[in-house]
Specification:
CATH superfamily: Nucleic acid-binding proteins
Number of domains: 1
Shape: flat
Structural class: mainly beta
Helix content: under 10%
Radius of gyration: 16 Å
Number of helices: 1
Largest sheet: 5 strands, mixed, barrel
CATH class: Mainly Beta
Strand content: over 45%
CATH architecture: Beta Barrel
Length: 94
């Protein structure tokens, strides 16, 4: 690969999302719920939609209730295409 191609690949910003960890039942994988808010075009009411993403958590440090930043990456498994970049806020552990 040429130097230019490597530089271009490194410069492309990967998509990042912030969401809440819903489940950590799997090994090295967490389910992150990301809420997106938009306005209804006619009634102008807020519409909240939630998408769930499977994210790779190498250290297994995320617990349900944590707010995390996930980043898009290469496919790791059938449904896992995101990786946990950082834990922004710890959830309340009972």
């Amino acid at each position: 690969m040429s130097e230019k191609a490597v530089a271009e690949r490194d410069q492309t910003a990967r998509t990042q999302k912030v969401g809440k960890v819903v489940s950590d039942k799997m090994d090295k994988t967490v389910v992150v719920a990301v809420d997106s808010v938009r306005r209804h075009r006619l009634y102008h009411k807020r519409i909240t939609s939630t998408n769930k993403f499977l994210a790779h958590d190498e250290k297994g440090e995320c617990k349900p209730g944590d707010v995390v930043r996930i980043e898009e990456t290469r496919p790791i498994s059938k449904r896992k295409r995101w990786i946990v970049r950082e834990v922004l806020e710890r959830g309340v552990q009972l």
